[in-house]
Design a protein that fits this description.
It comes from Mesorhizobium cantuariense. Keywords: Signal. Helices cover about 10% and strands about 40% of the residues. The chain is mainly β and about 170 residues long. The strands form two sheets. The protein has an eight-stranded antiparallel beta barrel. The chain is globular.
Length: about 170
């Protein structure tokens, strides 16, 4: 009950603080070949460790179109990591437009007082950093592309900051 009330409070706070989204341009052309995310290895709830991040099986990755710069296209795909070395998280960078705008699904395991969950959202790549819009649970999430092709993830939530390295799955 406490987590539910905190979630509603965070959502209300985020709604009050977030700037309205600019309308999306109809000129953005998604790639024509969406690709399904590979199935999870352990779908049986009894086989999934408690507190693990679980990504919805309907999440798809659309390969970047030809006009998407290579530095943006490098973010495309499913990424898995551990925040602070203990809590699993996943991010599916589903679409990327030529101007760096992205659609994503982010799933997390137990994170502070937050139970495992999933949120779909949008973000923007600037330089080597992908910054997501504030998630419904109040989390601010960003990923920086490292020279070795991994992502350094940062999640700020309820006054705490969690970091971890994410690898492409």
């Amino acid at each position: 009950m406490r987590n539910t009330m905190l979630g509603f409070a965070a959502l209300a706070l985020a709604a009050c603080q977030s700037a309205p989204e600019a309308p999306q341009s109809a000129a953005l052309e998604p790639a024509s070949n969406p690709v399904a995310v590979p199935p999870q290895l352990a779908l049986d709830p009894a086989a999934v460790p408690p507190g693990s991040a679980i990504m919805d099986q309907s999440v798809t990755i659309t390969p970047p179109a030809k006009g998407v710069p290579t530095k943006y296209a490098a973010f495309s795909g499913m990424w898995v990591g551990r925040l602070e070395g203990t809590d699993e998280a996943k991010v599916a960078v589903q679409t990327i437009s030529p101007n760096g705008k992205v659609t994503v699904t982010f799933a997390w395991g137990i994170l502070g007082d937050n139970n495992p969950g999933e949120a779909a959202g949008t973000g923007k790549i600037v330089g080597t950093t992908l910054k997501l819009g504030r998630l419904p649970n109040g989390a601010d999430v960003s990923f920086m592309m490292l020279p070795d092709g991994t992502l350094a993830g940062t999640v700020a939530l309820a006054g705490q900051t969690y970091t971890g390295v994410f690898i492409r799955q």
